[in-house]
Amino acid sequence: GEDGPSQTYVRNKHKFAAKAGLVSRNETLPANCTQGEAEALVASLAADPTVHGILVQLPLPKHLNSEPVLALLPPEKDVDGLTERSMGRLMRSLPGHAPCTPLGVMRLLERYEIPTKGKKVVVIGRSFLTGLPQVILFISKGGDATTTCAHSMTPPEDLKAVCVEADIIVSCVGIARMIKADFVKPGATVVDVGVTRIDNKIVGDVDFDEVQAVAGAITPMPGGTGPMTIGCLLENTLEAARMLGAFPR
Questions:
Q1: Active site residue 13
Q2: Catalytic-labelled residue, pool 13, 134, 205, 207
Q3: pLDDT of amino acid 78
Q4: Residue in 3, 57, 120, 144 annotated catalytic
């Protein structure tokens, strides 16, 4: 289809794939394509040995069901980490691909040497794309954090109570500027994954101007976790090629 934000995301993915030396193909279907046509295209890519990673750009047009389309992805080629098989592998710590945005958050923390082991972490959001896999990554071996999951139905007073105790807050609920300075313990790390569009501009979950005066480390929105998402898509694609035997580790 012609979804504007999706086209922007796809352009950026192609640009960074080219910078990394990857061959990036764009397979486009019209917005009025049938369920069968969408599934046939993905099935052909799944069977193509020259394709190591497949990303189905969501959302699909409203008349299409995304689940049967995603189910066609082999877990080795599911570089977005969104299928039930990929999520199952993540839960059981088996070889596979973690969703790119949560993985990007972990890579940011590693890069800036912000420890997670034994730390108190609050993840705000419970989507299959971000919140739930983010919790799994924090509690898995390597993350080893004591992790609380809050979400849009958590009463505000309870949300604030858990946040002020946290060493790390990751917000991915999509409520503009919800996290204020009084939610944050001095010196805590605050990672903003939430995206809300207001007057054609992207606004995060965190009131950046307020919170940066309190936080020890903070990511902006946009410009913080977004580039990491694309970087981890490329990382997953590289790992997918290795899993499929394209070249040795």
A1: yes
A2: 13
A3: 98
A4: 57
Residue 170 bridge partners (DSSP): 123, 191
Give CA 237 to chain center in angstroms: 15
Which one of 77, 78, 80, 205 is the catalytic residue? Answer: 80
List pLDDT tens digits, range 127-170: 998 999 999 999 998 899 999 999 999 999 999 999 999 999 99
State the pLDDT confidence band at 194, using cuts at 50, 70 and 90: very high
The sign of the dihedral angle between the CA atoms of 14, 20, 22, 23 is: positive
Alpha-helical regions (H) of 54-187:
66-71, 84-91, 100-111, 131-139, 156-163
Q: Note if the pTM is more than 0.85.
A: yes
Provide the terminal-to-terminal Cα distance of the chain, rounded to the nearest Å. Answer: 37
How far apart CA 41 and CA 28 sit, in angstroms, is 9
Active site residue 80: yes
**What whole-number distance in Å separates Cα of residue 85 and Cα of residue 81?**
9
Average of pLDDT values for 22-45?
96
